[in-house]
Design goal:
It is built from 18 helices and two strands. With about 450 residues, the chain is mainly α. The protein has a single domain, classed as Hydantoin permease, CATH 1.10.4160.10. The protein has a two-stranded antiparallel ribbon with strand order 1-2. The structure holds tryptophan.
Amino acid sequence: MAIQTSTERGSWNSRLGFILAAAGSAVGLGNIWGFPTKVATEGGAAYLIIYLLCTFLIGFPVMVAELSIGRASRRNPVGAFRALSSNKFFPLVGLWGVICGVMILSFYSVIAGWAFGYAIEEIFYFLGWTQMADLLTDTGNGWKNALLAVIFMLATIKIITGGVSDGIEKATKTMMPLLIGIIVIMILYVLTQDGAMEGVREYLLPDFSRITTDLVFSAMGQAFFSLSLGMGALITYGSYLSKKENIPQVAAFVTLADVGIAFLAGLLIIPAMYVARSAGIEIFVGDQLASSTDLVFQILPALFHTIGGFVGVTLGVVFFLLLSIAALTSTISLLEVPVSYVIDEHQMERSKAAWLVGLGVTFISVIIAFQTSLIGSFSYIFSDLGLPIGGLLICLFIAFVWKKEEALNELEHGFPTIKQSLFAKVWPVFLYVICPAAIAYNIISNFL
Ligand code: TRP
């Protein structure tokens, strides 16, 4: 990503580069940690179905909206709303996005630190250094959490300061297929184990009576989080996008890649939970999960350890390293939003902006590292609530302020026949009615 220098605004090197960066932003801890945890705690297959509906019916239209606003304005989220209209309210929506980005990144980096810590833990475990290994699995250890989160933030800042085009593109290009490959191998292994079929049933056979307003609310938040929507990350990435690209098409690709990886992660983790249970590992207390925040981080190492030997450790290390890279391509997009805001709106030079904002976020991360119970409330406010509200306002912006004709004019670049297409008829209906109504309804019923 040849991001802008201080004097000129950069752009993606290639079509593939953009797709990879956007998919890299989408695929992350949300898919492999967040999604399976929520499936396990909130309703199994019923959750999966509602999540898929939210992704395709709400997430995808909002993704096209964000990318078109970004490409038309060539600005950060605050500047974008300012550039496209004289309305005074919407730049505040952009600012809310910037704030959500900062706050999400501050807890995300702690969990990303755990993932990285587990890659090292697998090696220590293999070598028989159990004390060191146990230290790394202790998600309640503040100093350890803080150290790993700081390392993670420094890596993110470093990448954002430079022209990272080649870095992100290359990392994502090799990471994604490898990650899918390892997950598939693990799924095949897990499915041969005792107890797995109970997990498969839980994951794939819906019990519709489990659908509650809480479940729908949580699935909607998860869809926004997983697709990186609602806070202007894709406005920012869209601002570097060439006019030659067909936005609905790249958005579809990114959505499918994201959903595909989340689906596979669920197919691995949910059966693995039941395998672990039938092997006597305590995952449930009664009917309740014993732990939710670090569920995935307990299940996976247990699995690698039962495989055991050189194969077990290799799979474990490679998996957690890939997960860390996936998290890094996501934290990059989270930090890029506040950084591009400071560059555009406060005329600061890129590397100075990256360090200033990045170290500010790191400070909050350290607090969360010691107080991990904050993760729940942060993700409720800034992700489950914050992102859908942002998405709702983005829809309303196109529908009533910028206007759909302008948006379609923008989308015409890269998709010349769009105005005669079905897309041009259906997408506005989603922006005017379906997305705003569904989001508002979910949020209100969650409060009631
Ligand atoms: N989508 C990423 C994940 O699933 C997290 C993420 C990256 C994100 N950028 C974002 C979430 C912007 C919301 C907004 O792990």
